[in-house]
């Protein structure tokens, strides 16, 4: 009983002797609010992605990607791997119990005696071995906490991938719908320019216009046709990228609402900068990695001190199987070993210094991750505001160029201007429609980027 009490005392005392630093979150500069923010009283991330994007087809595509994306599936099993590693490290805190069986016999007894060789008698036994390293200095506890921090980082990596996946699907969807819109614009322009070409060709054949007008009409028709092929190519490439996210081979992507039918909030609240520390997975990943490295410093420090291991042997042994479980067959041994480094030319000290240097590096990376996160939110807010204003300006531009085209056609038909002015007006109208489509697409994409930058979606 005295031995048991002694072991309990050693065990309890050891848990108060952990060496190494304790983690504390680094002090970093955080802005009070976002410069570009419209409202900071709430955050768009309080809405789930299915509440932000009201397009039912887009919601279906997002859900399909979550169910089938191969990268996300990989991340799920990476978390399972981290859980197993944590369990593996945690087991080191407890005693290990192994078993063994033995049997031994001797032969040629007469010959061995003549040769002067002594053999042990016959022996059979069943033994249980107990080994336990007492965590005197917290080495095992530090390793266990480091593994737990790595697990948390892996969990956050999965969340980060989830957010990125939702954002990628939504962004590709808006890009695809924008390409669809511009393809329709290019097709309309091509049909209009073919009509120009037919009219100009007929006038040229009658000698009413010069060949230059005919060549110019052919040129702008060819430009529109080439634009159609370019857009068709980009649509196929975008659909292929979409299908990779959905975890399948090429299938044409179904379409839902057009970009101009999307109903997103006009004023998107961003919340407060301090919320990013608890929302953005990449920030939490950086912090968990720093926590894990801080614990590894504790492991390195503990390795400079002696370790205490207890070994126990309990079982039965007998010369004959028939008496193996008799009252005289039991045996038990308990031993302890204290071992530690004495002189290694500064090796253990350098190991601690190396782990501390790694922690300093990760501290800088954590601070950089914070700065990057704040910058991404500011950029997204600026993009939403400026693309929204640009879209309104493009609508005015489209209306003006359309009216200019109508007037140029009337002047040309009545012989007051050259066909070149009509071509310029038509080209301006075509380009303004393109730019309007791009501005709306970029405005929608910027809301996706803000949602991602704020750590929303999971």
Question: Would you write up a description of this structure?
Answer:
- This protein has 458 residues and is α+β, with helices and mostly antiparallel strands.
- Helices cover 63% and strands 9% of the residues.
- A four-stranded antiparallel sheet has the order 1-2-3-4.
- Helix 3 (56-68) packs across helix 6 and helix 9 (281-302) runs antiparallel to helix 10.
- The CA-CA distance between the termini, in Å, is 55 Å
Shape: elongated
Total number of helices: 11
Major sheet: 4 strands, antiparallel
- Please state roughly what percent of the residues sit in beta strands, choosing from under 5%, 5-15%, 15-25%, 25-35%, 35-45% or over 45%: 5-15%
Instruction: Round the mean pLDDT to the nearest integer and report it.
Output: 84
Count of strand segments:
4
Element string (H = helix, E = strand):
HHHHEHEHHHHEEHH
Cα-atom radius of gyration: 38 Å
Percent helix, as a range, is 55-70%
- Low-pLDDT parts are none
Class from helix and strand fractions: alpha+beta
Tell me the strand order in the biggest sheet: 1-2-3-4
Give a brief rundown of this model.
With 458 residues, this protein is of the alpha+beta class. It has eleven helices and four strands; from the N terminus they run H-H-H-H-E-H-E-H-H-H-H-E-E-H-H.
């Amino acid at each position: 009983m005295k031995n048991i009490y002694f072991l309990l005392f050693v065990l309890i005392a050891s848990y108060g002797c952990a060496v190494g630093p304790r983690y504390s979150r680094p002090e970093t500069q955080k802005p009070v609010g976002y410069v570009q923010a419209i409202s900071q009283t709430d955050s768009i991330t309080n809405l789930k992605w299915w509440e932000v994007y009201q397009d039912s087809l887009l919601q279906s595509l997002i859900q399909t990607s979550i169910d089938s994306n191969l990268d996300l599936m990989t991340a799920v099993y990476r978390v399972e791997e981290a859980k197993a590693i944590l369990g593996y490290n945690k087991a080191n805190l407890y005693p290990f119990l192994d078993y063994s069986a033995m049997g031994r016999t001797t032969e040629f007894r007469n010959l061995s005696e003549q040769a002067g060789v002594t053999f042990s008698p016959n022996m059979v036994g069943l033994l249980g071995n107990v080994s336990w390293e007492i965590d005197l200095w917290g080495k095992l506890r530090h390793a266990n906490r480091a593994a737990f921090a790595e697990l948390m980082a892996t969990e956050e990596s999965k969340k980060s991938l989830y957010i990125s996946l939702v954002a990628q699907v939504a962004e590709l969807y808006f890009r695809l719908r924008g390409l669809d819109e511009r393809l329709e614009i290019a097709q309309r322009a091509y049909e209009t320019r073919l009509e120009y070409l037919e009219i100009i060709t007929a006038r040229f054949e009658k000698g009413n216009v010069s060949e230059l007008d005919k060549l110019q009409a052919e040129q702008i028709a060819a430009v529109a046709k080439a634009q159609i092929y370019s857009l068709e190519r980009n649509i196929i490439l975008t659909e292929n990228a979409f299908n990779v996210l959905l975890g399948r081979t090429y299938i044409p992507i179904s379409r839902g609402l057009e970009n101009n039918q999307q109903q997103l909030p006009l004023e998107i609240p961003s919340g407060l900068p301090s919320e990013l520390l608890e929302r953005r997975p990449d920030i939490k990943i950086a912090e968990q990695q720093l926590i894990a490295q801080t614990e590894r410093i504790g492991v390195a420090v503990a390795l400079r001190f002696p370790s205490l291991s207890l070994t126990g042997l309990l079982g039965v042994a007998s010369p004959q199987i028939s008496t193996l479980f008799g009252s005289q067959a039991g045996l038990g041994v308990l031993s302890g070993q204290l071992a530690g480094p004495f002189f290694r030319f500064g090796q253990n000290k350098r190991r601690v210094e190396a782990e501390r240097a790694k922690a300093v590096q990760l501290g800088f990376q954590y601070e950089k991750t914070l700065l990057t996160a704040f910058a991404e939110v500011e950029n997204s807010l600026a993009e939403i505001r400026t693309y929204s204003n640009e879209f309104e300006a493009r609508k005015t531009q489209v209306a003006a160029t359309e009216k200019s085209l109508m007037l140029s056609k009337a002047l040309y038909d009545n012989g007051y201007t050259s066909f070149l002015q009509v071509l310029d007006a038509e080209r301006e109208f075509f380009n303004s429609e393109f730019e309007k489509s791009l501005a709306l697409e970029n405005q929608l994409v910027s809301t996706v980027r803000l949602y991602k930058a704020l750590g929303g979606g999971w």
